[in-house]
């Protein structure tokens, strides 16, 4: 799984200097994020030689005679990336790669080898997305070999959406979720061994996979806010007069999750006080013992996701500690 730069979008005719700089700068931000997450970004063999503005190719825009002037810092960062970026043509070709006439939505078909690389991979069950400059999100693509939904990544939202959709592209099962979760939910901390709990879910993983992924998505997007944002706000983006430095109560946290359509609840005091019950909910992160005092209810009476609010040892991320049908209760 990786991304390929859609060089067809590198056509700057009619763009202002600021539009060009902002688009390239935004793409470089995605490159930096992808690298930090150990995600590969491929380029085609003509990205740096094809015309991008009139008769000028990319590096010709550095010349004094170029019609636009971009900052030295931007050129340096672009050169540092492109100097080490792998070319996808050097890798294993997907079936159908010789078919490069591509249609996006209702647009007229055009030759686009970069898109074809992603399109044919997705058709074959391997998630590959395009890094775009203007196009964003999933789009239906069509070739003579068939159709595929290809994601264009432009910001953090579309970046995560690609990886979450990749779980379906590559076959939604326990192994796929474990392999892709760190990319799909980068603001969650997954405890070592947590995925073994998928096998303990009543009815099996497939019965609750959509619900589980919904919980993980919301916790990734809003979990830190729900656990830590000062009261009295009950929804993300709500404008209120904050209680400075105050921590939200369990009641506020529970109401926040309810507003996010998650059934999350803290453990009752009797659970914490019972040694057997407490031990079943404890995990170790680094040298710290952590009691997963919150649980999400994947189903009303069984199948639980046990979590902890962000802590230093988790890198400030919400902790996904335990997945189980039901941990022991007092009595």
Short synopsis of the structure:
The protein has 331 residues and is an alpha/beta fold. It has helices at residues 17-36, 72-82, 113-123, 156-169, 174-184, 205-228, 250-259, 269-273, 275-280; strands at residues 2-5, 40-42, 51-53, 56-57, 101-104, 110-111, 128-131, 137-143, 146-153, 188-190, 264-266, 282-285, 288-291, 294-297, 304-308, 318-324.
Main pleated sheet: 7 strands, mixed
Tell me how many strands there are: 16
- The fraction of residues in strands falls at 15-25%
Q: Helical segment tally?
A: 9
Query: Helix and strand string, N-terminal first?
Result: EHEEEHEEHEEEHHEHHEHHEEEEE
Q: Are there runs of 5+ residues with pLDDT below 50, and where?
A: none
**Mean pLDDT metric:** 96
The strands making up the biggest β-sheet line up spatially as: 2-1-7-9-8-5-6
Overall form: elongated
Helical content band? 25-40%
Radius of gyration using CA atoms only: 24 Å
């Amino acid at each position: 799984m990786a991304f390929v730069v859609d060089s067809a979008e590198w056509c700057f005719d009619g763009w202002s200097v600021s539009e060009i700089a902002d688009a390239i700068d935004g793409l470089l931000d995605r490159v930096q994020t992808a690298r930090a997450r150990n995600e590969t970004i491929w380029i085609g063999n003509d990205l740096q030689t094809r015309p991008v503005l009139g008769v000028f190719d990319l590096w010709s825009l550095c010349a004094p005679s170029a019609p636009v002037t971009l900052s030295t810092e931007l050129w340096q960062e672009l050169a540092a990336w492109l100097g080490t970026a792998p070319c996808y043509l050097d890798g294993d070709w997907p079936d159908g790669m010789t078919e490069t006439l591509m249609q996006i939505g209702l647009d007229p078909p055009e030759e686009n080898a970069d898109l074809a690389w992603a399109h044919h991979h997705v058709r074959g069950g391997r998630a590959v997305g395009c890094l775009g400059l203007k196009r964003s999100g999933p789009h239906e693509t069509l070739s003579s070999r068939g159709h595929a939904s290809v994601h264009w990544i432009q910001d953090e939202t579309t970046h995560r959406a690609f990886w979450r959709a990749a779980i379906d592209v590559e076959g939604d099962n326990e192994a796929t979720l474990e392999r892709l979760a760190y990319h799909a939910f980068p603001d969650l901390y997954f405890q070592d061994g947590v995925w073994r709990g998928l096998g303990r879910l009543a009815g099996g993983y497939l019965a609750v996979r959509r619900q589980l992924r919904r919980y993980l998505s919301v916790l990734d997007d809003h979990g830190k806010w729900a656990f830590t944002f000062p009261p009295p706000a009950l929804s993300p983006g709500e404008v209120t007069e904050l209680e400075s430095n105050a921590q939200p109560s369990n009641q506020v946290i529970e109401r926040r999750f309810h507003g996010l359509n998650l059934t999350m609840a803290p453990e009752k005091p009797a659970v914490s006080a019972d040694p057997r019950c407490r031990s079943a909910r404890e995990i170790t992160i680094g040298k710290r013992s952590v009691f997963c005092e919150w649980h999400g209810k994947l189903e009303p009476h069984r199948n639980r996701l046990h979590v902890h609010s962000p802590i230093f040892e988790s890198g400030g991320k919400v902790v996904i500690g335990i997945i189980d049908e039901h941990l022991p209760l007092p009595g």
